[in-house]
C-alpha cells in the first residue's frame, strides 16, 4: 500500500516515513524523538505487529487497517502534550467524515445520542462509530537532552477489520460499507491534523480545542463509570475542565475531576 501526505501537510513541511511492516509505529516514533527530529514526522505502516494501547494493551494492526504515529517536537511540557490526544480525535473525526461520508448519518448510541452523526469522541482517546470503538489514540512523551520534549501521537483505525473477542464492542469502516483504504484515510488525516494543530497553537488554543471536542463528545449528560485501579467512580458525565479532565457529578452528589481511567457509558456504566 502506498502512503502519501495530503497537499496541506506536504506544504506545511511535515515529513513521512512509510513502511510495509513495523513492530510499532509509536516505538519507531520514540526512536526518532531520541534522535532529535526538528520537524513533525509521520510514521505509517501497512501492518503493525507489536503495537500497544493505553496501559500496555496489545494493539495489532492487520493489513488494511491504519497504524500511524506523528512525532511532534518542541512540546512545552507533559500536561500540554496530553492535549494532543484531543487534537488527534478531532482530526480523525474530520478525516473519517471526509473519506466515509455515510458516517455522518444520524444514530442513537447505547443510552445517549451522537451529536448529529454516527461518529463520536470518547474521553480520553477513542473514536466511536455507533457506540463501538473505531479508532484509538496513544500519546507518549520523550525528553531529549538538547531538543527538549517531543510527543509521539499514535493512531490506530479499524479500516478493513475490527478485532474480535475484545472486552468492548469494536467496528470497522468496512462494516459501515465504506470502500476507503488506509492510504485514503491517512492522506485525509495528515491534512486535517494541520488545521486542528494550528488551533491548538502550542497549547494556547486548548480552550478552543476543548470546545470543539465537547461538541463531538459521546456521553455528555449520561451515566458514566470510570475504573482507576481498584476504584470505580460512578455518576453523570458533565463536561471537561480547563485541563481536559473528565468532570463527573458522582452518585454521592460531589464533583470529581478525573485525569485518567477506563470509561464506560450507557448501560455498561450502570452495571455493578
UniProtKB/TrEMBL annotation:
Entries under Gene3D superfamilies matching the protein: 2.30.30.100, Bira Bifunctional Protein, Domain 2 (3.30.930.10)
SUPFAM superfamilies: C-terminal domain of transcriptional repressors, Class II aaRS and biotin synthetases
Main EC class the enzyme belongs to: ligase
Domain BPL/LPL catalytic: residue ranges: 15-201
Its EC number(s): 6.3.4.15
PROSITE patterns referenced in this protein's UniProt entry, alphabetically: BPL_LPL_CATALYTIC
Xref: PANTHER family: BIOTIN PROTEIN LIGASE, BIOTIN--PROTEIN LIGASE
Name listed for the protein in its UniProt record: biotin--[biotin carboxyl-carrier protein] ligase
Originating species: Terrihabitans rhizophilus
